[in-house]
Amino acid sequence: MTNRNAIILAAGKGTRMKSSLYKVLHPVCGKPMVEHVIDHVSSIQASKIVTIIGHGAEKVKEVVGSKTEYALQAEQLGTAHAVMQAKDILGDAEGTTLVICGDTPLITAETLEALLDVHAAQKAKATILTARTDNPAGYGRVIRNDDGLVEKIVEHKDASPEELLVQEINTGTYCFDNKLLFECLENVSNENAQGEYYLPDVIEILKQKGEIVSAFETPSFDETLGINDRIALSQAETILKRRINEGHMRNGVTLIDPDNTYIHPDVVIGPDTYIYPGTMITGKTIIGSECHIGPNTEIKNCEIKNRTVVRQSVAHDSQIGSDVQIGPFSHIRPQSDIRDEAKIGNFVELKKATLGKGSKASHLSYLGDAEIGENVNIGCGSITVNYDGKNKFLTRIEDGAFIGCNSNLVAPVTVGKSAYVAAGSTITKDVPGEALSVARARQVNKENYVNKLNINK
Ligand code: UD1
Ligand code: CA
């Protein structure tokens, strides 16, 4: 295979986004658009990937990390000028260089591979990825001669009325013979409507040299959407959402209402799981099989095993076992670990809490900084008092313990194995295993009180 390299253009500000966030960092289905591009480019096995950064360079580097090398474009003088900045890194390389814009996150790895295949098969010095659309406004148009061969690309703002009618557009993705690319870039001028050095001008320059220029038209215009404003951003979100959701459905997941289900790209879901409307599953979440998730549920960075039910709830950065029941209206905060067959009911909040196998907190509890064993029952309204205003402390509740309703467990404190805490207790000292602890005022009944009070009677 010929040596491959890639250049990702990501130095522009993205003026049309009207945002303080740099364009290529705007997320599509939760992932910055430039990261989508890099993930797809990574699969073409390039020796080097160079990201051209400029606006927000540090921020872009922070997000992309060590996945690519970088070249700085200090001033944004156009896409040709941007590619030039990679010359120090790639100028001498042999082989093929893929150039792609950081604002086209929907182009798939398969399409990139197909483009490279056509390029190699045609022995071309440049191959343009093109697409056809009824609404080509804003895109560069691919101009072909009478024999159907590509002549040049004309930017929308420079196009004649006749050229504007052309529906074949430049997707902004190309592959080039690397050496010729850098040679031709020297000859690109900025005499055009935008006063910019246009990368597409390289095509005409190559043609004038008598080199073979080819084009590969993808049947899917959707893939090639360039995101210049928030309208295109929402279109990309819809297209990618559909693509992701269809992938899950093909894998055996039931989505009751895919248009109203939001699953981010790195989420894994097992077969025969049902996802109900209004559910958002994000980050690195892994859900097992035969689960029921939703409606109206938010899950981020969680691992959920099999046959678990999560209804109308929020769960973040936590482990949830098999056959667990959560909700409605539960809040699972980070670092919680809910073991198999546990139950968490309405208005129960967990934070950094382990709830052992078969344990239950069915109603109205706060369990924070807690280690709770197996088969523990947490009565309605019980609370771990974990914070003294300065520091957080641990509550331990051992296997089989029973915490009566409306108890306060003032940490640090341990309730021993199979112990009972009477309802309404405020526990400040450890409770030994198998003991009953009552920590509340004794009840006093004042007989005949009403009659004594009612002096006029
Ligand atoms: C570009 C193409 C157009 C194509 C369209 C596809 C040019 C001149 N035009 O237009 O033919 O139809 O993409 O989406 O190439 N960038 C830099 N440095 C710069 C300028 C831009 O890094 O100096 C980056 C931007 O961050 C962006 C990409 O290059 O990721 C494309 O720039 P943009 O301004 O969006 O070009 P379009 O007008 O969309
Ligand atoms: Ca663009």
Question: Could you please describe the fold and organization of this structure?
Answer:
This protein is α/β, with parallel strands linked by helices and 457 residues long. It has two domains: 4-224, Spore Coat Polysaccharide Biosynthesis Protein SpsA, Chain A (Alpha-Beta Complex); 251-437, 3 Solenoid (UDP N-Acetylglucosamine Acyltransferase, domain 1). Helix content is 19%, strand content 31%. The strands form five sheets. It has a 23-stranded parallel sheet that branches. The longest helix has 21 residues, at 230-250. The radius of gyration is 31 Å and the shape is elongated. The termini are far apart. The mean pLDDT is 96. It binds uridine-diphosphate-N-acetylglucosamine and calcium ion. Uridine-diphosphate-N-acetylglucosamine is lined by residues 9-12, 24, 52, 54, 73, 76-79, 81-82, 101-104, 139-140, 153, 155, 169-172, 198-200, 226, 228.
Characteristics:
single chain, 457 residues, alpha/beta, Spore Coat Polysaccharide Biosynthesis Protein SpsA, Chain A, UDP N-Acetylglucosamine Acyltransferase, domain 1, 2 domains, 10 helices, 37 strands, binds uridine-diphosphate-N-acetylglucosamine, binds calcium ion, Hexapep_transf_CS, cell shape, multifunctional enzyme, Hexapep
